Amino acid sequence: MEIRILTESEQERYENAILAMLTEGDAEFVPPLSTRTSTTQSDLNGKMKGTGGVLSYFAAVKKQRILAATEEDKLVGFVSFKENFVDERIGEEYLPNIYISTLLVAPEGRGKGLTRRMYEVLFAEYEHANVFTRTWSTNEAHIKILSKFGFETMLVLKNHRGNGIDTVYFKKCIRSF
């Protein structure tokens, strides 16, 4: 298993595999990726419907950096992320940073510690950066991994993804704020 941040040309080579993984994993996300228009949109209540299906989400992923896990040159997992991301929730005081927008492991790669290993590679590459991500409150497996890596809850948006499903922002900072 090889885990690395892809160069621009490598990223282009894996685009079809990334799109296939997003399509296969679409319904595992809350809300599904096919209802979203970007990787950072703030309206996630499930009432809005993207018009491009997974392709709209994929278009946003393609503009980001990709950390890929490959086995015999086959993509088995990836993390898409933005460097030095600033929005209404993550201010300039948190620079330098990375914002993890998508983490996905193919079914055949699950249960093998791949998510943990991808995070370790990402942290080693960006050891001097603050790290942010978000997920939904019922995504217990991912929240457990984030906790093990020392992420702290930064913000909870109640019922943001539907009744009883909150959006939870997490941060792992290299210094206190």
Key terms:
177 residues; alpha+beta; Aminopeptidase; 7-stranded mixed sheet; 5 helices; globular
What does the model show?
The chain is an alpha+beta fold and 177 residues long. It has a single domain (2-172), classed as Aminopeptidase, CATH 3.40.630. Helix content is 27%, strand content 28%. The protein contains five helices and seven strands; from the N terminus they run E-H-H-H-E-E-E-H-E-H-E-E. It has helices spanning 8-13, 15-25, 54-62, 114-125, 140-148, and strands spanning 2-5, 65-71, 74-83, 97-105, 130-136, 152-157, 167-172. The chain has a seven-stranded mixed beta sheet with strand order 1-2-3-4-5-7-6, with helices on both faces. A hairpin with a 2-residue loop joins strand 2 (65-71) and strand 3. Helix 2 crosses helix 3 (54-62). The radius of gyration is 15 Å and the shape is globular. The protein starts with a strand and ends in a 5-residue tail after the last strand. The mean pLDDT is 92.
Question: Could you give the distance between the termini?
Answer: 37 Å
- Helix/sheet category: alpha+beta
Tell me the CATH architecture: 3-Layer(aba) Sandwich
Question: Strand arrangement, largest sheet?
Answer: 1-2-3-4-5-7-6
Number of domains: 1
- Helix count, per DSSP? 5
What is the name of the CATH superfamily? Answer: Gcn5-related N-acetyltransferase (GNAT)
| CATH class categorisation | Alpha Beta
Radius of gyration: 15 Å
Q: What's the SSE pattern? A: EHHHEEEHEHEE
Mean pLDDT: 92
Count of extended strands: 7
Strand content: 25-35%
Query: What is the CATH T-level topology?
Result: Aminopeptidase
User: Any low-confidence stretches, pLDDT <50, length ≥5?
Assistant: none
Helix content: 25-40%
| Principal-axis shape | globular
